Amino acid sequence: MGEDSFSSEEFCGRTVLITGAARGLGREIGQMFHDHGARIILVDIDNRVEQTAADIDPESKTAIGKIADLTDDKSVASLRDAVIQEIGDIDTLINNAGAYAPHAIRDISGSDFDERIAINLKTVFLTTQAFMDSLSSTQCGRVVNIASADAYRPKVTNAPYAAAKAGVISLTKSFAAELAPNVLVNGVSPGPIVTETAKTQGWLQQAIDKHPLGYAAVPKDIGRVVLFLASPSNKFMNGETVVVNGGTIMI
Questions:
Q1: What pTM value is reported for the model?
Q2: Which residues are catalytic?
Q3: pLDDT in tens, 52-83
């Protein structure tokens, strides 16, 4: 999919909510939707999300930042109520919130495990559950869940993350079956992505050294696939998770 796969007005009139959008992949996905005509709602527990939205649209008309703890059902319900009251129903939900924190199994406590499952899996369930009626009311709702290539292979330094992302793939199928035909639910499983967080965690270069293509994705590489799955052009993909990893799960 090239830069010109979508017209500048492909998402005109559509409202897209992106979680985990203060920076990194979520921010870039938000920017791409905005560039293609969508009104965007960026959500994150990180209060920098408000500045991110202001950077995209200084007038706060077509990009709005919201702070919420998406692991907490009351916080998610408050977010939903505020969005519907202030903006109205959403057309598209991008579940991108997550956290990657490599540790060996012996170093992960029970509370660590619970936290990582909550951030990477529970957020997908709670946010989709909260907004599913809003999405259904538009008759053309779209949900795209960000999973991971790690869901398909052993992850010796981040077992809870891999397990949670495998759960995201399963949730994608369950929501797709239950919300059809008004809402299409799909997922994307990225491989290594060049983000500031990835650079600081120290694993990115090692992943690139082992990669069949010899380089990692940039956020736009993933964003283009997300845009297609969320677009009016997608009329028949439902319950699928597209692996966009340059071949990393082959090795």
A1: 0.91
A2: 161
A3: 999 999 998 999 999 999 999 999 999 999 99
